[in-house]
Amino acid sequence: MTSTNTNHDLESPSATAGAQAAPVVDAPAAADPRRWIAFIIMTVATFMDMLDGSIVNVALPAIQHGMGASFVQLQWITAGYVFAFALTLITGGRLGDIYGRRRMFQLGVLAFVVTSFLCGIATNPEMLVASRLAQGLAAGLMVPQVMSIIHVTFPDKEKGAVFAIQGTIGGLAATIAPLVGGLLVAWNVFDWSWRTIFLVNVPIGILGYVLGWKYINESKAPSRIRLDLIGVVIATVSLTALLFPLTFGRELHWPAWGFVLMAASVIGFIGFVAYEKAKDRKDGMPLVPLNLFKSRSFSAALALMLGMFSFTGMFMLALYLYLQEGLGFSPLRTGVTLLAFCIGAFITASASVIALVPKFGRAVLQAGAVVIAIGVAVLLFSISPDITSWGLVPGLLLIGLGFGMTATPIALFALQEVPHEDAGAASGLINTKQQLGFAVGISVVTLAFFAPLASNGATNAESLAPQFRQEIVAAGVADARATELAGAFQTCAASTFSGTPDAAACGAVQADPQAKAIADKYTHQAAGQSFTDAFRTTLYVGFGFAALALLLASFLPRWLKQEEWGAPAEEGAEEGAEDTAKA
Asked: Is the pTM of the predicted complex or chain greater than 0.90?
């Protein structure tokens, strides 16, 4: 199925409607019920990707114990997937425009199945790392096709419901990943232990692959486009220079060359834009159609997406660490607790794009940012070292409600002026912004969580050392030995909170049977207070992200321009004319 939309410039709503009314295969076929079956298939694929992005975190202890993986290898197993995924998105989206979106989606699904199987049968950490990188590349080919197929297949009046469902499913996958991972590892099906979290993708992916050929219609750009190989190289190198230090910088203790790489990436992106402009003038076949950024709606939506997902990456990582490491929650209990966030996002994700945004426009997204800030404030007043799951529910529910109101409708604003021929490239950019946001958020955790954790951990360890000494003396340990063990306890606890445990000090405490049990008690006490204080600092930074989201949302057009969305006719038309003139 091929589009006949040949306008390379951004179209006005009337022009777009005229193009879609023409007898072409790429126009939305309102009477074709297969598009919903196709959407279900693609949603399952998206769910697998979102689940795989974080489910492995729960299985890391089992992987380390079963395969003897080092901490560096564990980092590559988790972050390597996201890194490879982010690198492929822009190119993957454009490949769909060129060779067919269904074809690239199906190829991505097949590759995802194969690489999931390889992860499941990995015989050593090196094989698992390589398979996870390949799995990320497969996801980068598969995922951007979903948004572009939706854009060219569904009429505007249905896109609200489609994006609401897709956003909810994505949020659900990310939220319940610890729950699902914990259950799969705990059940230990066929004695496969952690391997189940990868092998479960195989039958699901095969079923989706078979059904995809039957129910997903093909679409691609109307005119013949060649892949911009030089653009691919420049974009990939520049993204690598930016994402590698953001993703792995904390584990590598932020070396100087990491900051040099990030600075070089700026030069690389400037060169990429200059090259793409020249490429567009030469043959009209750039990797990224820069005319997309002439749209106020697209540019503002990308900026807002970067800010929102930076907050999400920071908040979720800090929350996982606080619940599991600080409060001692099991993966299963963590997943159940986070359902409050998921339920909130589910409620507003559907309501915002179907009912609220058509009536109130960008004000819904701005209100969502305010609700997030209120939720953060509720958590600030609630958290403590002994808080229960129920105590976290009000704050998490509010943040979820705000997230659904703000994050889910962004795609509607981003895609409303994108020509069908550039749907893949636009989808690749949108997904890349999401992953870049996650990477930025994770890097912010270094300053907003780990830095205060190290500082507070050292302080709490120092304050608890005298109590530790007093208790082991009461247990019959000699004064000199007690003083030595108290010093080892303080050094071990402080170094552990800083991320580099002192093996000698920790070994000395663990080797003494009397000291070990007492040390575990006080370490748990120090962890509860230290992680609570660190998470509180992260929440203060969350206020800043909420304010940023409120500001960025104000740059969006006030209304969605399509008449089907019910924007007030006079005001919507007036702003639409103004935006078209600016473009």
From this structure: no
